[in-house]
Amino acid sequence: MMTALLLFWPALAALLVLLVKGQGAKRVAFIAALVEFAIALFAATTFVVAKTAPQFELSVPWVERAGISFSIGMDGISLLMVLLTTFLVPLIVLSSFKHDYKKPNAFYALILFMQTGLIGVFVAQDAFLFYFFWEVALIPVYFISAIWGGARRVAVTFKFFVYTIFGSFFMLAAFIYLYFQTPATGIAPHSSDINAFYQLALDTNTQSWIFWFLFLAFAIKMPVFPFHTWQPDTYTEAPAQATMLLSGIMLKMGIYGVLRWLLPVVPSGASQWLDVVLVLSIIGIIYASVIAIRQRDLKRLIAYSSIAHVGLISAGIFSLTEQGLQGGVIQMLSHGINVVGLFFIIDIIFSRTKTREILSLGGITQTTPALSICFMILMLGSVALPLTNGFVGEFLLLSGVFQYNYVFGAVAGITIILGAVYMLRMFQGVMFGTRSPETEVFADLTFNEKAVLIPLVIMVFWIGLFPSTFLDISEPAVFNLLNIIQKR
Amino acid sequence: MISIILLAGFGIINLFAGFLKSNRMLLPLAILFLTIVFGVNLFSWNDPQSYFNNMLTIDNYAVGFTGVMVLSTLLILPFSQRYVADQDENLAEYYSLLLFAVMGAIMMVSFENMIMLFLGIEILSISMYILAGTDKQRPRSNEAALKYFLMGSFFTGFLLFGIVLIYGATGSFDITTIAGTTIGPDGIENTMFVMGLLLIVIGISFKISAAPFHFWTPDVYEGTPTLFTAFMSTVVKVAGVAAFYKLMDAAFASSYSTWFPTLIAITVLTLVVGNIGAAVQGSVKRMLAYSSISHAGYLLMALIAFNERSESAIFFYSLAYSVATIAAFGVLKLVTVQRNDESFATFNGLGQTNPLLAFVMTVSMCSLAGIPLTAGFFGKFFVFTSVVEDNSLIWLVVVAVLLAAVGIYYYFKVVIAMYMHPAGNYERVRVTSLASFVLIFVAVLTILLGIAPALVSDLI
């Protein structure tokens, strides 16, 4: 019941927000998102960590004759993803308070509606339900980006939309195929339940092509090199809130898909292609980092840094080690927190100076102690300095990759150096140095802005200092996944 | 059965109602008649009966498709309301012809005898030839009617030849008898039979505008008044596909290996031509014409899968497709009547001037593109599942999936125009309250079927 509440409350709230006239919509949306976070926290307190099976389960027939059911539930990984989503969405809504978007009711309703899709992806226990929410999450963010975005928004977001749908159609085709391989249950000839998929015994050749069908969908979403071409443009053109939703939460859908629907479903197909995927991921890390160093636009820089981080997560997960998977899960949280914070700071800078060019900024630290501290902490978290959240994730991920292959690990490790280069270079260019005409007058954080950044900063340290709070939650689920992968 | 008789009677009554002074009563009358037929039709559910020495069978298949077609017509009619103001003394005839066309369509889904199939197709087609030309002042409408008539008669010839050859080979028009005698005494199919089968396949492919027999479609759809284009691309197509499946299932199931290669070529070609063609169109109406070709392709996919899922897949897809297409043509008609332009730019800024129309159009486009939360997604889903069941046809699903991605491209061109381009000089489009009601109904139905497909998918 809890999961159903989590799932439907945002959709319901979205309808409510639609009815609100004027800028009051943002407040209603914020309260609704807070309520959702409270529900998620309550679910977390009643969650039994030791159990590997999904909890708060609900399963009702959806297309009964075909064996498709509306079945949802949460294990540790799902719970962490739901917590991340419900934690970030109110902050993202709050971060938009200084903008007066046209048609605010539609804007905020779409955000909340997207939240339903995102949560649905993380709690779905049925392949077709997963696919259903996968697309439901995409449509609102497409409209948010395409309607409220920058000058080139139409063409850019259209590419993003068609690209990701193209990938997910392959996922659908693979799911349909897998569905027909499942045995009959009750009156239905087949079943699309996740456990039915986990029990499939397919030969390696079949698994091999199904792997690519599914991987294509997830790789485009993450995005993994060379499927990343939609991402920098989309992040740059989308309005700040959509960029936060895309980078903070939506790309986790792809990683979560790999964990839940790719590796355990076609393990021997995956093991055939591990080398290829790792090489692609590592190319992505180096390639995106090098490009990030060259970027002048702040948003593009963070966009490329995001590709590099995701590349490392993907490499760690595909190492199929406990450290790699655990690191992947924790890094999903850290990356979500850091990237949302950084994009918000860029939004703050942009709304005050009307520029995102590093060269035309500088000297902001002089008048803005609060902003500088928050920016620095988030930036260092992103660089993976010890004591911050990024360190935990990257350490685990890299140790996973090292166990897989020393050379891969060494090359992937360069990301730490390159990451420090582009991040520090950015921070230096924006915050230190002499003032430019654009930054002559620069006010420090307002109350609302602090209200967004301080929770994020707290989370940077929390995950950095006490990662076990979160690692313990995901551990049984990760063990369970590894068991399933190795058993088959 | 009763619905066929009723429709014939109502058609004639409607014709005489043309003598009344006022045209105002005609639309409510037609809607009333169709509602009665819709209701009466439902009484035959789960009560299969055969009539006239086995010429017609009203089973659940017939009742289901009759329901879809009558509902489609009911939903199309309210958009004719503007006709009352600016057209024309022959209004009664148009409504009567529509009623007759529906009657023909019902015969096409309930035939048990090739003669009835042929009669149904002809009653439907002849009505449509006339309706295509009803915009008498516009040369394009005349061109459409003439083209449709000439091409249509030509391909009706194919169909008739096919039926005759089948009769020659099997000695019967009755489809169950044909099914029993498809193979000659020497154990192989006789050449006359194969030729007849091929000619019938070509004849019906033309009627559902499957490639390579589709070339009339864009021109005819474009020239025909939008109201009747909507009818053509829903009722006519659904009737054609339903009749096609019934014929193949009941009469030619054992010759599967004979017609399968032909039909699979037609299907792939239809998908490619429809989707690629639609992607390069500059006019929304032509885009919808090509899109209707592509949807014929998806429907044919379910047909060639030819297993126990096909029937239900075709039924669901027909309903989803019809509902979304009616919304699309309905909005198109309302918008073009006022803005006098059929290019994508006509829709510019509709999201600001008419949020309701834009929303309904978006739902319809998403449904046609097969995006979840809409009926079209489950339509495609059921079609693809029926095809994947046969492992050797997975490549076909891959082709269809790639082309469906192309589909998103052209459907979203409309959405982009509505929400992301400024309205410019365009003013708010006036919508009658009846039309708004229908549009809301259609959008709700599309979303409802996208959330709870089991409401319909378990029926047939």
UniProtKB/TrEMBL annotation, chain A:
Q: How does it sit in the membrane?
A: Multi-pass membrane protein
Give the Pfam families listed for this entry.
Answer: Oxidored_q5_N, Proton_antipo_M
List cellular component terms (GO): endomembrane system; membrane
Keyword Transmembrane belongs to the record: yes
Q: Where in the cell is it found?
A: Endomembrane system; Membrane
Segments traversing the membrane: 6-22, 29-50, 70-94, 106-124, 130-148, 160-180, 209-230, 242-261, 273-294, 301-320, 332-350, 370-392, 404-424, 452-471
Which InterPro entries does the entry link to? NADH4_N, NADH_Q_OxRdtase_chainM/4, NADH_UbQ_OxRdtase, ND/Mrp_TM
Main location per the UniProt record: membrane
Q: Does the keyword Zinc apply?
A: no
- BP-aspect Gene Ontology terms: ATP synthesis coupled electron transport; electron transport coupled proton transport
Gene Ontology molecular function: any one: NADH dehydrogenase activity
Q: Which residues form the NADH:ubiquinone oxidoreductase chain 4 N-terminal domain?
A: 66-118
What residues does the NADH:quinone oxidoreductase/Mrp antiporter transmembrane domain cover? Answer: 124-415
Q: Which keywords describe this protein according to UniProt?
A: Membrane, NAD, Translocase, Transmembrane, Transmembrane helix
Q: Which family does it belong to?
A: Belongs to the complex I subunit 4 family.
Name of the featured protein? NADH-quinone oxidoreductase subunit M
What species is given as this protein's source? Pontibacter qinzhouensis
From TrEMBL, chain B:
Family annotation (InterPro entries): NADH-Q_OxRdtase_suN/2, ND/Mrp_TM
| Coiled-coil segments on the chain, per record | none
Q: Signal peptide span per the entry?
A: none
Where in the numbering of this chain does the NADH:quinone oxidoreductase/Mrp antiporter transmembrane domain appear? 113-403
Where in or outside the cell? Answer: Cell membrane; Endomembrane system; Membrane
According to the UniProt entry, what is the EC number of this protein? 7.1.1.-
Share an example GO biological-process annotation for this protein.
ATP synthesis coupled electron transport
What keywords are assigned to this protein?
Cell membrane, Membrane, NAD, Quinone, Translocase, Transmembrane, Transmembrane helix, Transport
Record-level GO cellular component terms: endomembrane system; plasma membrane
- Coarse class of the primary localization is membrane
Q: Which GO terms describe its molecular function?
A: NADH dehydrogenase (quinone) (non-electrogenic) activity; NADH dehydrogenase (ubiquinone) activity; quinone binding
Q: Which reaction does it catalyse?
A: a quinone + NADH + 5 H(+)(in) = a quinol + NAD(+) + 4 H(+)(out)
Q: Which residues cross the membrane?
A: 25-45, 61-79, 91-109, 115-133, 145-167, 192-215, 227-247, 259-280, 287-306, 312-335, 356-378, 393-412, 433-456
Tell me the PANTHER family matching this sequence.
Answer: NADH DEHYDROGENASE
What this chain does, per the record? NDH-1 shuttles electrons from NADH, via FMN and iron-sulfur (Fe-S) centers, to quinones in the respiratory chain. The immediate electron acceptor for the enzyme in this species is believed to be a menaquinone. Couples the redox reaction to proton translocation (for every two electrons transferred, four hydrogen ions are translocated across the cytoplasmic membrane), and thus conserves the redox energy in a proton gradient.
Tell me its family: Belongs to the complex I subunit 2 family.
* Subunit: NDH-1 is composed of 14 different subunits. Subunits NuoA, H, J, K, L, M, N constitute the membrane sector of the complex.
Please identify the protein, giving its name as recorded. NADH-quinone oxidoreductase subunit N
